[in-house]
């Protein structure tokens, strides 16, 4: 059949018109479906954080294990390295990430610890040695050594563990749980280290800390 001749006829023109109408309707429907999918799908962001060597994935309200470990390490380093001059800055930065459910109680404790640190003129440095993830609680455990120096007396080394609950809201990390535990380290030459039971300790400001849920 000579299609060119056929479509140039009146009957062919009517059929061609119907074909284009069906195609146009199909394109409209496909555009509507694609638009709906685009608006309903939340992006997954892939990042490689500075303090970890592997990539992380974070959605609107969800983050993978690497994401939580990365932010847990960040908070542990922030809270664990303080001086009387920097403690106010540390409290301000940490407060921006606190969940509303623990905001008041946590800041109250942290300000009390900050005052103790200033009064005793303490400087604390923290060296993280291990980052773990508790599958049961979904919390990050940062284990390391804290070195406390004061104006008087010998420096004191403590084995300190930070326990942090990291959530994601609108792609942003939220600190929903914060506690730390420590024990003294026996560092005398020729003396075996003796394990002591973990006990609640400061959250990076030198004073007693509480667990916040």
Describe the overall structure.
- With 213 residues, this protein is α+β, with helices and mostly antiparallel strands.
- The protein is built from 5 helices and 7 strands; from the N terminus they run H-H-E-E-H-H-H-E-E-E-E-E.
- It has helices at 3-7, 10-40, 65-80, 87-95, 103-119, and strands spanning 45-47, 56-58, 123-134, 139-149, 156-169, 172-184, 199-200.
- The strands form 2 sheets. Strands 3-4-5-6-7 form a 5-stranded antiparallel beta sheet, covered by helices on one side.
- Helix 4 (87-95) packs antiparallel against helix 5.
- It is rod-shaped and about 105 Å long.
- The N and C termini lie far apart (79 Å).
- The model is unreliable at 44-49 and 185-213 (pLDDT under 50).
Which structural class best describes the helix and strand composition? alpha+beta
Order of helices and strands: HHEEHHHEEEEE
Low-confidence stretches: 44-49, 185-213
The 3D shape can be described as rod-shaped
Walk across the major sheet and give the strand order: 3-4-5-6-7
Number of strands: 7
Percent helix, as a range, is 25-40%
Largest beta-sheet details = 5 strands, antiparallel
Mean pLDDT: 76
């Amino acid at each position: 059949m000579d299609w060119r001749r056929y479509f140039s006829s009146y009957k062919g023109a009517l059929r061609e018109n119907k074909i284009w109408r069906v195609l146009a309707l199909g394109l409209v429907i496909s555009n509507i479906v694609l638009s709906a999918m685009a608006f309903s799908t939340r992006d997954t962001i892939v990042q490689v954080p500075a303090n970890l060597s592997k990539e992380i994935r974070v959605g609107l309200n969800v983050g993978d294990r690497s994401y939580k470990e990365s932010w847990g390490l960040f908070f542990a380093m922030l809270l664990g390295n303080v001086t009387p001059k920097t403690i106010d800055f540390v409290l301000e930065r940490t407060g921006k990430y606190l969940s509303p459910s623990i905001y008041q109680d946590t800041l109250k404790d942290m300000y009390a610890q900050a005052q103790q640190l200033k009064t005793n003129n303490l400087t604390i440095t923290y060296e993280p040695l291990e980052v773990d993830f508790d599958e049961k609680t979904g919390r990050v455990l940062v284990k390391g050594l804290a070195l406390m120096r004061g104006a008087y007396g010998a420096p004191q080394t403590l084995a300190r563990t930070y326990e942090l609950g990291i959530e994601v809201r609108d792609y942003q990390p939220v600190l929903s749980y914060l506690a730390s535990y420590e024990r003294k380290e026996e560092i005398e030459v020729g003396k075996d280290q003796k394990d002591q039971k973990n006990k609640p300790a400061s959250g990076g400001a030198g004073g007693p800390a509480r667990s916040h849920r």
